[in-house]
Amino acid sequence: MNVFSLSGETALITGGGSGLGFGMAKCFVEAGAHVVLVGRRIDELKKAVSELGSLATGVAHDITETERAAELIQTAEKAAGNPISILVNNAGIHLKKLALETSTEEFQSVLQTHVLGAHALTRAVLPGMIQRKHGNILFTASMASLFGIPQVIAYSAAKSAYLGMVRTLATEISSQGIRVNAIAPGWIETPMSQKALNGDKARAAKILSRTPMATLGAPSDVGWAAVYLCSPAAKFVTGVVLPVDGGVSIGF
User: Fold this and answer.
1) Are 85 and 11 in contact (CB under 8 A)?
2) Active site residue 228
3) Residues with Cβ within 8 Å of residue 29, at least 6 apart in sequence
4) Distance of alpha carbon 83 from alpha carbon 126, whole angstroms
5) How confident is the model over 82-93, as pLDDT tens digits?
6) From the candidates 28, 107, 139, 155, which is the catalytic residue?
7) Could you give the domains of the chain?
8) Nearest residue to 114 (alpha-carbon basis) of 73, 160, 68
9) What is the pLDDT of residue 128?
10) pLDDT tens for residues 173-187?
11) How far, in whole angstroms, is CA 122 from its chain's centroid?
12) Residue 198 pLDDT
């Protein structure tokens, strides 16, 4: 038996058409899972699905429409032909602004995507997982969940909220066969990180200088960590936040 196999699992990955979501999807498919990629950009989803092959399905959806969360789960399960057994709450938006310049509306927009969107989908997928006594829920946290980073107050608040959600959910539902964990990526080569670092050479240099491995990570680094956390190899692991960061969170 391959304890890292995800054969027979169906994973719904929000923000799955690009970046970390697509990186996780590629690794999930290699591990044998069927993946349902969720995103707002149809062309991006089609391209991702075509690259992943027959084990991938795309569903266009805006997770900020929280009242349609149950509808998304039903659509995804119908498209995949199987119930969702893994939910990856990965979709997010980035806002790089000083706290003093961040408006209430901008703050709410970030929280709506990361926190309320994730909660709505988790709430929608849980009844089926509880009935089957099997499931994994994974949150994409951040270094901003672990220590202070300037100019990202809304993003930091949202990602820090994930840690509380993971711990509370784990205590509520782990006894029912559902594990809940998070990954806290360091700085990974993605379009979002490139946008955050674009034109800010001092920030980029600071990131590399405080990363013990002295390099940015690849989406697959996060992807294989996600495979582990959702696989039988991690059957006694719940409520944890796993940094995948090249040592950033312990560096000096």
Assistant:
1) yes
2) no
3) 35, 52, 53, 55, 56
4) 11
5) 999 999 999 999
6) 155
7) 10-242 (3.40.50.720)
8) 160
9) 98
10) 999 999 999 999 999
11) 12
12) 77
